[in-house]
Amino acid sequence: ISIFVFACATGRPAKHIPRHLSAGGKQMKKGLEWYQKGCYRRSLEYFFRAYELYSASDLLDGVAMSLNNIGAIYRITGKYEEAVSHFDEAYAIYLYLNDQKGAVKALSNKAATFIHMGKLGKAGEVIEEAVRGVPADGKKGLLISVLQNKGVLLTKMGSYGAAEEVLANCLTQAHTLDPTGRASLHFAFGNLMLTTGRPAEAIASFEKALSADREIGFYQGMADDLFSLGLAYTRLGQDKEAVRSWKRSVKIFAMIDQPRQIHETMEYLREAARREGVDISVTEAFVERWRQGRLYESPCRD
């Protein structure tokens, strides 16, 4: 699912911005650095700080941006109702500011949250509203990301042919996206291929997603890509390749402290390793060590 996270805001342009008015942007930048690594607890702290600073200075574009980014973290961490309320608040401010692009991004994020909640009908309504709201002078990437969410929704609904048409059209414009957008789009298409019984094509898409996520150092994305690669390989009966992918995946999950994903990946990994007679004891030892917090180089610590 494609999620829009906003990068910066400084309020109305000014020749000189007093330091206390620029402080929110500095906190936002730090939050984005942690977000782009997949270190969500750390990023949330800075997004809260940015919200407070923007609110104190009455910089509404920064307030809306902070609300959107906080909502993005809540969606990722499963706090869906809180996410929706934050996206709604951001949307209202963007409308007041006559920022149509910001409003569309907030709507798209809200739709993505509804998809995760299983409220597919509501997600469809919000996506159509977002599509209608894309301004004529809007960047192609904005519409592509909204349509990508539509493709994910159609996949969830079992409308595989329609989903493939939408996502394939988006892929023709993938070169216009930044690495984050490309990774998200290729992952969505790979998931569709896996769902429709085409694991070889899924592998090609997940590899492209992995390459893009590796380019920006997105730990969470790389771990998810590798996990899905393992699923695709095992569907092809290539358990040794699946083991290689899951070993890489679970190590990242362990270092960024994702207990649910660690458990799920280790279950798959142990079963595939058993079938192939592969020794994974070294990986198990390191994962257990890192789960206990015994890391010299934690990706989510300064």
Task: Describe the secondary-structure layout.
Elements (H helix, E strand, L loop, with lengths): L18 H17 L4 H17 L3 H17 L3 H17 L3 H18 L2 H14 L6 H17 L3 H12 L7 H17 L3 H18 L2 H17 L3 H17 L3 H18 L4 H11 L11
Helix pairs in contact: 1-2, 2-3, 3-4, 3-5, 4-5, 5-6, 5-7, 6-7, 7-8, 7-9, 8-9, 9-10, 9-11, 10-11, 11-12, 12-13, 12-14
**Whole-angstrom Rg:** 20 Å
Q: Give the overall silhouette.
A: globular
Would you report the number of β strands?
Answer: 0
**Number of continuous helical runs:** 14
Low-pLDDT segments, ≥5 res: none
Order of helices and strands: HHHHHHHHHHHHHH
The secondary-structure class comes to mainly alpha
Helix amount, in percent?
A: over 70%
The biggest sheet, with number of strands, parallel, antiparallel or mixed sense and barrel status, is: none
The termini sit apart by 29 Å
The portion of residues forming beta strands comes to: under 5%
Mean of all residue-level pLDDT scores: 92
Offer a quick outline of the entry.
The chain is mainly alpha-helical and 302 residues long. The protein has 14 helices and no strands.
Give an overview in words.
It is a single chain. The chain has 302 residues and is an all-alpha fold. It contains 14 helices and no strands. The longest helix has 18 residues. It starts with 18 loop residues before the first helix and ends in an 11-residue tail after the last helix. The model has no long low-confidence stretch (mean pLDDT 92).
